Every structure is written in C-alpha cells, then in structure tokens.
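Preliminary data (for renewal application), S-adenosyl-L-homocysteine complex.
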Amino acid sequence: MTALKAKIKARIAASGPLTIAEFMSVCLTDPEAGYYTTREPFGAKGDFITAPEVSQMFGELIGAVCLGGYEAIGRPEAFHLVELGPGRGTLMADFLRMAALRPAFLDAGELHLVEMSARLRALQSETLKAAPLTPHFQDRFQDVPEGPLILVANEFFDALPIHQFVRTKGGWQERHIGLDASGELCFGVGSVRLPEALTPASAQDAPLGSILETQPAANAIAHDIGSRIASHGGIALFIDYGYEKPAAGDTLQALHKHAFDDVLAHPGEADLTAHVNFEALAAAAKDAGAAALPLMTQGDFLLKSGLLERAGSLGTGRPHTEQEAIRDAVERLAGPDQMGKLFKVLAITQKGVSFPPFDSDT
Ligand code: SAH
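Predicted structure:
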C-alpha cells in the first residue's frame, strides 16, 4: 500500500468520505507524498510524455504564435509572460529560443512560472539557466503582478480537481470515495446534489448510473485570467486534452508507468487527470469580460502554425535516423489518432483581437 493510501484511509475513517476533488487534490499535491510534489512524472522513465517533451518544435511554434499575439495586442511596452504548470521547463526554453528572434519581446517581457512543486521549480530553473529571461516563481496565477499578459498552459487544467456526480433516482448526486466493509477505498454517492442550472441539456436524458463532471477550480482560474486580460490586455493559450461541449461520461483516469491504472490503486504514485471542458473555460473567461477565439484541435493548430515547414528545416542535412525521428514527432503531435484530435487549443484574448492561426471571434 502507498504511504498516501494509508493516510487517505485514516482520514476517511476519522472524518468521512472525500469528494473526487478532495481525493485528486490530495493525490496530486499532498506536501509530503503528492504525485507532483514527489515524483518525476515526465519522459520515458516517468508515467507520460507531454507534447513539449516529444519535440522542441512544439514550444517553438507556441512561441511563434505568441509573437503574433504580441503584435496583435499592440506590442505592450511591458507585459508578464506566464506559464502555468511548466513541468520540466522544456516548453518555455523552446519558446524563448524562438522569441529571441524579437529582442523587443524579450525586453518587454517579465517571466512568471506558476508552479506549486518545489522540486519541479528547481528543475525548471535548471532547464532555463541559460535562457534570456529569469523566472519569478508563483504559487498561484493570482500572485502574478497586474499588467498585460501573454500566458501559456499546456496540460495544466487536466491536473486540477474535478467533481463528479452520479445519476440516481434522486437526481445527480456527488460521487465520493469512502471505505468498503473490508476497509478498502471504494466509490459511493453522497447527499449533495448538482443544482439544476448546472446540468447541461446534453445530459438530461442520461441513464441511471451515468457520471457528469464539473471543474470549478479550472473555471475559476480561467475567470481570473479572463478578468486580467479584460482590464490590462493580453492573450492566453490553453492546450489540453478535452472536449468541446460537456456530456455525461467519466473521464477521470490514472496513469502509472505509461499504462492506465485503477484510480484508487496507487494514490500519490500515479498521475490523475480528467478531460477538460473547453466550453466551460471559454464561458468563464468571457464572463469576466475577455473574448474566446474559436477552439482548434492541436493537429490543426500546429499544421496551420507551420509544423511541417519547421520539421523540414530541422531535418535538412541531418542523418536519416534523425529525420525519421522528426517525422515520428510530427505524427505524434498532430496525427488524428495520436495527440492531434483529442488535444485542443483555446485562445483567450482582449476583445477585438485575433491572430494566426486562429479564426476571428464570431
Ligand atoms: N506543462 C508541462 C507539465 C504538465 S504536468 C508539460 O506540458 O510537460 C502539470 C504541471 O502543473 C506540473 O508542473 C505540476 O506540478 C503543475 N501543477 C499541477 N497542479 C498545480 C496547481 N494546483 N498549481 C500550480 N501548479 C500545478
């Protein structure tokens, strides 16, 4: 049994079942035994590989798109370049190499990394030690000082706690994690009901036992970013796997050593994520006064941003095996069966602004 599993069981025995959000939050961020606090999740030895770790082209293209966004918002004299949940810092290192092509961008930008894990902060500092900007670390987005914003978040929102509700005869009741007769962790339902106003139309006819998810923590951050952009200007790119419109379905998943795992099996040792509801993120940002550009799939976004051209120039004059690896990376990042379709890109902007490869707001 993991150390954290014993701690969670003791907590439930003492004070009752946990919501899915409480469980996720403990598993991922417990100060002593949480997944991000203690583990090395990324790369071949970890549990999963994210897009920036697949290829430098990912961070470079995000950098190029953000340079376009910087032009579109009128090249502010000073702005905060922010990344939420930077992992190993790879995306930002590749981003800044691309941004160095525009010295004015680097002169105006102040880098803020929002990261709760002290261990990952150290790794990010190491990755960025030769970068042209020195990071300021923040615990939460709200701690980033006011001012225009250029913000990137890759696979950040999927790690934030979600709530789940189960369709019962009594309506949508919150899903819990409690203890069964033999003292093992098990799912159950509590008495809290989902308010009628939060039930999407698409879920109204869902059969008994269906699961519906809400993401108040993610929506609150999207709202704060939208509010900052509405009052100070800026752009934000949210890249994650998720869905365009909400529907009933259980997307909570655990990944352990590159394989799906039972969600309750290895608390603190497996990554826990849920698919992101992009419609809700866009609505939260708009509610705060910002605009949201039409959602793109990651494949479309990267191809329209010049992925193939970048792959071509990166491969020129390189040995055959390297060219093959670059082709594999293109397939992995943009292929519809790989990350191309499931992953989406949402751009939040100040009103009246658009920039390639996004269509204008309609
Ligand atoms: N963007 C990186 C890493 C994604 S993993 C990549 O694409 O490779 C999620 C990241 O978000 C990790 O750096 C994790 O420590 C951080 N994180 C998770 N929950 C967080 C929270 N509540 N506040 C701040 N950072 C968080």
